[in-house]
Design brief:
Keywords: Signal. There is one protein chain. The protein has helices spanning about 1-20, 60-65; strands at about 30-40, 45-55, 70, 75-80, 80-85, 90-95, 100, 115-120. The protein is of the alpha+beta class. A 5-stranded mixed β-sheet has the order 2-1-8-6-7, with no helix packed on it. A hairpin with a 2-residue loop joins strand 6 and strand 7 (about 100). The protein is elongated and about 80 Å long. The termini are far apart. About 10% of the residues are buried.
Length: about 120
């Protein structure tokens, strides 16, 4: 009986120690800035700073802080009432740290000091 008790205690301690030492980068808070502009009217819609968990999808940040519309396919179509117009070739684009991003907003996970810019603009 003592042997079973010892094994049980050792097992519990191992589980607790593993759980305590298993912190991931997603537990870290990071600072990002987010600028949203309408290039067709030279309007700044928003210019905000956020503190979020590292690895948070960009779509989650948008949905938690703005009125956004996204298609079932994950394409952004409107922010705060500013809507793309496919007939006029006006679309939302976004950059992270000055570079165009080639992945959807649901897949982009933010990192510390990211500066993200959304622009509603004519794409020719």
């Amino acid at each position: 009986m003592k042997q079973i008790k010892k094994i049980f205690i050792i097992t519990i301690l191992a589980i607790v120690m593993t759980a305590c030492g298993n912190t991931s980068a997603t537990d870290e808070e990071v600072s990002i800035s987010l600028t949203i502009t309408d290039q067709t009217t030279n309007t700044t819609i928003s210019d905000d700073d956020f503190t979020v968990q590292s690895g948070t999808p960009l779509l989650t940040i948008l949905e938690n802080n703005y009125d956004v519309k996204v298609t079932d396919d994950g394409f952004l179509t409107a922010i705060e009432g500013y809507q793309q117009d496919t007939d006029e070739s006006i679309f939302w684009t976004y950059e992270a740290n000055g570079e165009m991003v080639n992945e959807g907003i649901a897949d982009y996970e933010v990192e510390d000091e990211d500066h993200i810019t959304f622009d509603l603009q004519v794409i020719e």
